Amino acid sequence: MTTSRTRISKAVIPAAGLGTRFLPATKATPKEMLPVVDKPAIQYVVEEAVTAGLSDVLMVTGRNKRPLEDHFDRNYELEQVLRDKGDGTKLARVEESSDLATMHYVRQGDPRGLGHAVLCAAPHVGDQPFAVLLGDDLIDPRDPLLARMTQIQEQHGGSVIALMEVDPASIHLYGCAAAAPTGEDDVVKVSDLMEKPSADEAPSNLAIIGRYVLDPAVFEVLRKTQPGRGGEIQLTDALQALASDPSLGGPVHGVVFRGRRYDTGDRGDYLRAIVRLACEREDLGPDFRDWLRSYVSEEM
Question: InterPro entries per the record (predicted)?
């Protein structure tokens, strides 16, 4: 099978998870809609895709995810109220989310893992390469990871995964890559992948983070992939098959990311992400940093 070199325009965002780590806040509110400063986490992810040139976005959702669709849809009543009040600033912010991208939605149905969620996107994606963005990882827009990944995919074909060096003691929390250097400092050639290995089993400290650019050949591999850890179809297993046998759909490369990443996947990191982003905002940062210094000095 030849690798695909088509320019990438489609992004897939799996958003069917239950968000149990944030209960009770996520009992009736999708975790993707939890605010990070003053925007829901999912909007940062869509903005990242659009900034990288991916204007066609498919969300793979599940039950109780209707607020995601509502957020990216028009709210004519609210817009009219703001227009009548002459509040152009708030009106622009409301309209921003509905004008970001061409949005599509598909239901995953059974929550059978990330690999299954990606497979649900096959009819929409078709036979062209596409990106997958996980909502728990927010990438700072000043560090254009996804644009770099699409560049590497267009150069080499196949698939590209995002990697980050982590403390070896933490590698069991991630998928892990065995990789060899290339002629580029931030690019490696992936030969093997393991899902959440122990520190003793891990082939490196290169952890997979939530950005992928995938050749459409991954769909056929996913259809043949048996459920793995947790009884779920693991995307890592399909990528491992592609890395082991490039004839299935081209090579697998990794981009080693050394930029700013905000993890909203657990409560502590979610709070730290909010503080970091608020501190860096021009409109909020100065006052917030002053308050934070005062608060920390009092608590010490």
Answer: GalU_uridylyltTrfase_bac/arc (IPR005771), NTP_transferase_dom (IPR005835), Nucleotide-diphossugar_trans (IPR029044)
